[in-house]
Design goal:
This protein is elongated. The protein starts with a helix and ends in a 10-residue tail after the last helix. The protein has three domains: 67-221 and 429-436, no CATH class; 256-395, Orthogonal Bundle (Helix Hairpins); 478-724, Rossmann fold. By secondary structure, it is an alpha/beta fold. The protein is 60% helix and 10% strand.
């Protein structure tokens, strides 16, 4: 007893592994897919590249050639300046900025306009703006109001209009690590190109000379004005100095006055010090005398040291000694005694007089010393005031003198600079000179024909490659066995070849009619795949379906059934009860009984089965078409009939409707062992086929694999390098012959 459909549904399935070894779709579509995309359309890609190159060549050779001439100019730092303008105008740059500035000057509008006017470029067709204004396009735009009427041309307006085109053709390029500048000009007239290049260089040099001459004139005028101002300022400062000398009565302050006054101050200071010393001594003696109250000045050293007082003191002592000696001999009334007493009295009176005189002298000396000290002190202060006044005068005089000297130096410097100015020599030393004049070019620089043609061809090839890759990206059909396995994630049982119209008429019996054909061999390959799956099963029920009609499922079903009939008892059932094809294409009568009659019980098995001529294959057509085929397929009677037929035959192949139109195949799928999905190569969109396979799997059907039908082997081998059978040469070498295929 065979396994029930439920048991078949629950059987564990081994997930299909793509031939790509488990690589992701992104990885597979990298280099190999790109290369295949390019090689399969290599002729078209090369043709596109060649066509683009031919078009580019036609355009390039129709263009008018453009010639270029170059003049080399040496730009130098000015060695002999008009005057030392470094100090006046801040100097000339000595670094690369100076050369970049000169380059910009060469490209300036002033130089360009001078060249345009010198050569009257508007008289050349290439630069004549009147040519465009007279064109029919411009006239049309003027008539509809898009453009205004052309201006009234004169030399100035023509020069301005020509300068715009002139500026686009000039090129100024400094030579790295040098003082050279290359000035190039492009024109369709090679003679004009050389003439314009040389004129640009000469115009730049002339303009530089004019600018330098103008600067020289301005500098001379500035020098004259500045010199006059400095001369007047110097005269005013000298006059102010002399006026100050006259006002202060100064003959010279070169140091003599300060020396004299200094010596005077030193003498007075010395005398003052001596006077202070004497006043101190006199004051000491005066204070001692003043402290005596009883008139006895004998204790005052200054009085005692006086010679007159000392002499009077000796006389008084001598007289006293004489009185003392006489007192011992005589009495007080003795004449000698009286005389001695009189001498003693006279000596004492003399002593008092001398001491009084010394006291008076000390007092006078003290007063005199004080007066002298005060007078010397006043004299010293007066001398100090005098020298301070002299110092102030000397400072003011020094300020005025320095101003005179500064003005004189500045005036002398400008006079010296003015004398050094040499306009003639400086004008001979121009900032630039031509070292290599432009010559007439013999070979054009534009267009570079060979380069443009090669680039155009490369771009054409690149565009062809991009288009090929884009077409492959937009192509969602299945183009080979590897493509089918990668996109559908199902093994490919076999690939059937594309047949000619004549071969397609008898394709349903091709396995019997042409056993050596590629189609027959492909069917054998599919049969082998079926037999190798579920190898332990003795009874197999296969469902053959597809996504849409016209993919060849009926042809595959019939030929696969014929192949199995050679070795096993096989039954082919047509369950496409909406558009049955097997009975019709095998030549059975329209009234032939079939599966519908057997399920409904209207006919016996023998009445519903037909034997294929030339084969042992049993065929059961659809029979009478029921009004609702789905109800028939869902009935218990159909399930029982299918189970009974499975016991009677070793292989049952069922041809069912497409899964995208009706759900008949989805109802039958859980009742069979395996489902074979037919896909038409290079026509069926793989998302549609993948969706159909997924629906079958979700309904409980177990996929066996995919049959790729209508595959152009030669094209597939050329495009993709492989397919499910042997190569074309292999078929011929094994004696199968070659069949005509449609591209």
């Amino acid at each position: 007893m065979m396994n029930s459909p439920q048991a078949a549904q629950t059987t564990a399935e081994t997930p299909f592994v793509s031939l790509a070894g488990g690589l992701s779709e992104e990885s597979k579509l990298e280099l190999l897919e790109y290369w295949r995309s390019i090689t399969k359309r290599k002729l078209a890609i090369f043709s596109l590249g060649l066509f683009v190159a031919i078009v580019a060549a036609a355009i390039v050779y129709s263009l008018q050639p453009v010639y270029s001439s170059t003049v080399t100019v040496l730009i130098e730092q000015s060695k002999n300046k008009v005057l030392s303008f470094d100090e006046v105008y801040g100097g000339i740059s000595q670094d690369k900025e100076h050369y970049q500035t000169q380059v910009e000057i060469i490209k300036s509008r002033e130089v360009g306009m001078r060249v345009v006017k010198l050569l009257r470029l508007w008289e050349y067709p290439e630069f004549d703006p009147r040519k465009d204004s007279d064109s029919w396009v411009n006239t049309l735009f003027q008539s509809i109001g898009i453009r205004s009427a052309p201006p009234k041309w004169n030399d100035e307006s023509l020069a301005n209009a020509a300068f715009y085109r002139f500026s686009k053709n000039i090129s100024v390029e400094p030579v790295r690590l040098s003082q050279l500048v290359k000035v190039s000009f492009e024109s369709r007239d090679k003679t004009l190109a050389a003439s314009v290049a040389n004129t640009i260089a000469n115009a730049y040099i002339d303009l530089d000379r004019e600018a330098r001459f103008k600067m020289t004139q301005q500098a001379n005028e500035w020098l004259q004005d500045r010199t006059k101002m400095l001369r007047d300022k110097l005269a005013m400062s000298e006059q102010a100095l002399q006026s100050f000398r006259d006002k202060q009565g100064i003959v010279s302050l070169s140091g003599s006055v300060q020396t004299i006054i200094g010596q005077q101050i030193g003498d007075v200071a010395q005398r003052l010090a001596e006077a202070k010393s004497r006043r101190a001594e006199a004051e000491s003696a005066f204070n001692q005398v003043k402290s005596i109250k009883d008139g006895d000045y004998t204790t005052v050293p200054a009085v005692i040291r006086n010679p007159a007082v000392a002499d009077a003191k000796r006389q008084e002592s001598t007289a006293a000694l004489k009185v003392a000696e006489l007192q011992q001999r005589y009495g007080s009334e003795h004449p000698k005694m009286v005389q001695a007493m009189s001498e003693l009295k006279a000596a004492r009176e003399n002593l008092n007089r001398q001491m009084q005189a010394v006291v008076s002298s000390l007092t006078h000396e003290y007063e005199t010393a004080r007066s002298t000290e005060k007078a010397l002190d006043n004299a010293l202060n007066a001398a100090r005031g005098t020298i301070q006044n002299v110092n102030r005068q000397e400072f003011e005089l020094g300020v005025l003198d320095r101003e005179v000297q500064s003005n004189k130096q500045l005036y002398d410097m400008f006079m010296s600079r003015a004398k050094e100015t040499n306009v003639g020599n400086d004008l001979q030393s121009s900032v630039a000179r031509i070292v290599d004049p432009a010559v007439v070019a013999n070979n054009p620089v534009k267009p570079k024909k060979q380069q443009i043609i090669v680039i155009a061809m490369i771009l054409g090839l690149f565009a062809g490659v991009m288009i090929s890759l884009l077409l492959d990206k937009l192509d969602n059909t299945i183009n080979g066995t590897e493509d089918a396995e990668r996109r559908l994630s199902q093994p490919v049982l076999s690939a059937l070849p594309e047949l000619s119209d004549e071969e397609a008429k008898n394709a349903i019996t091709a396995f019997i009619d042409s056993p050596d054909s590629q189609l027959a061999e492909s069917i054998r390959t599919a049969r082998t795949g079926v037999l190798l799956s579920d190898i332990d099963l003795t009874h197999r029920v296969l469902l053959i379906t597809s996504s849409m009609p016209g993919e060849g499922k009926t042809t595959v079903s019939t030929n696969l059934a014929m192949a199995h009939a050679q070795t096993r008892k096989t039954l082919l059932i047509d369950l496409d009860m909406r558009r049955p094809q097997i009975g019709k294409r095998l030549g059975m009568p329209l009234s032939a009984k079939g599966i519908s009659s057997l399920v409904s019980g209207a006919s016996a098995l023998g009445e519903c089965i037909y034997t294929m001529p030339g084969s042992t294959l049993s065929v059961m057509p659809a029979g009478d078409l029921p009004p609702n085929p789905l109800e028939l397929l869902l009935s218990q009677k159909f399930k029982e009939t299918l189970a009974w037929l499975r016991d009677q035959y070793e292989v049952i192949i069922i041809d069912s409707p497409p899964v995208e139109l009706v759900s008949d195949a989805l109802v039958i799928a859980p009742m069979v062992n395996r489902v074979v999905f037919v896909v038409r190569a290079m026509k069926t969109p793989y998302p549609l086929a993948r969706k159909g396979i997924l629906r079958v799997q979700r309904s409980g059907g177990r996929m066996l694999g995919v049959v790729l039908n209508h595959l152009d082997f030669k094209k597939s081998q050329r495009y993709y390098g492989s397919y499910s059978g042997y190569g074309i040469d292999d078929y011929e070498s094994y004696g199968y012959g070659s069949k005509k295929s449609e591209a």
